[in-house]
Each structure stands twice: as structure tokens, then as C-alpha cells.
Amino acid sequence: MRILLIEDNSALAKLINNHLSRLHAVDQANNAQTARFFLDTKNYDLLITNADFIDDENYQLDHYSHLSTLLLTTELTIEQKIICLQRGMDYLVKPFHILELMSKVKFLFQKTHQNWKKLTNINLTLDQFTRQVFVNDKEIQLNRKEYALLELFLSNSKQIFSKATLAEKIWQEDQVLMGNTIATTIAHLRKKIGKNFIKTIKGVGYTIR
Fold it and tell me: What are the structural domain ranges in the chain?
């Protein structure tokens, strides 16, 4: 499992990283800007974040609400508790024992992965468990948005998605604000998986054949 740890307490971050990295791939950020960079360029199964960052406008946690999230906090405000309930997030109150955190991570891992499977289309395979993508049994590298698009298409075979729907589901943005971002991302994805997989329905949207 790939985890992003967002914590500005260096001693605590080191302790957590040392334990998690024995079993998982872990990236670490100590500020919102670095966290955003990792989230926009890599695929993660779990976010472990200092609760102080959830209100940081540079972080914009709303954009990553689809990811399992574990909040680390000294206390939870009413607003933060509501956020946890609405988004299905878990939390740990500091100070906590490292074994308690490891148990939380294991629980979230099992909860997240229980419905994951391999999605296939002819010679294309997407493994939701490992987040790997293969074309003709050869692994290809996708960025986070490309992976999310492909997963959406494969999970909803033959369904046509408008640009407005893709903007909402993948970018959590209004289509009007996105310009050519969707078309450009799909063009890049086609180059990696093959140009014939994703079909453009003129004036309607996109689908996978």
C-alpha cells in the first residue's frame, strides 16, 4: 500500500515513517504545498495527515475526499468531527501509541481493499489492489488523473461520460474553469494505453470501447 504522511512534527513523522515503511511505501510531507505536489503526481491508498492541515487553503483536502484518510490531532473541533463523519475519515488523538496507529492503518487498508479487483478490457488490465496498469502484460506508468480516468471508464464500461461529469468526478472542478485540461489528459492517456481504447462521442463525451 502507498501512503502519504503529512506531519510537521519531525520527531513524530520520523517515528511513524520508520514503522510504516517496514510494510508500506511511504512518502512524507511537512507542509501543504509539498503534500499537494505528491497528491497531484502520485497515486495513494491512504493519507495520514495532521488535522491542522485540513483547513489550509493550499491543501484543499476536498479534492482528495475519495482517499481513505486518517487524521492526527490533539483535539477535534465540532467542525472537524463533522468533516470526519461526512467523509468517512478516521482519526487518532495525540498522544497515541504507535501500535494503535498501525492497527488503524491495517483496518483502513482492509476496509478500502475489500471490494477492489482487476478491471480488464481486451489486452488492458488495471489492478485496483496494486494500482498497476498493464497493456499486453507490460506495465505502464500513469499519473494520478490518468489512472483515475481509466479506472472510471473501466468500472463503467460502455457508459458515456460528458466533460462536465469528468470534471466533477475526477477534478472536482467546474468544466468551464478547466479549459482543455480534460482533452489533454485523455490524449496523454491514449498515447500510453493505445489510441483505440477511449472513444470520443462527438458532442456528447467519452467512453471506453
Answer: 2-113, 118-208
HSE, CB side, 13 Å, CA atoms: give it for residue 66. 13
In whole angstroms, what separates CA 81 from the centre of its chain?
A: 22
Q: Exposed, middle or buried, 194 (CB in 10 Å: 0-12/13-18/19+)?
A: middle
**CATH number at 2-113:** 3.40.50.2300
The tens place of each residue's pLDDT in the chain, 209 residues long, gives 789 999 999 999 999 999 998 888 899 999 888 988 888 877 788 899 998 776 666 556 656 666 788 989 888 788 877 877 777 788 899 999 999 999 999 888 877 666 677 899 989 999 887 778 999 999 999 988 899 899 999 999 889 999 999 998 888 777 776 778 999 999 999 999 998 899 999 999 999 97
CB 26 within 8 A of CB 20: yes
The three-state secondary structure class of 37 is helix
Q: Which fold has domain 118-208?
A: Arc Repressor Mutant, subunit A (1.10.10)
The model's pTM is 0.58
**45: which 3 cell numbers?**
491508498
b/e per residue 8-24 (b: at least 16 CB within 10 A): eeeebbeebbebbeeeb
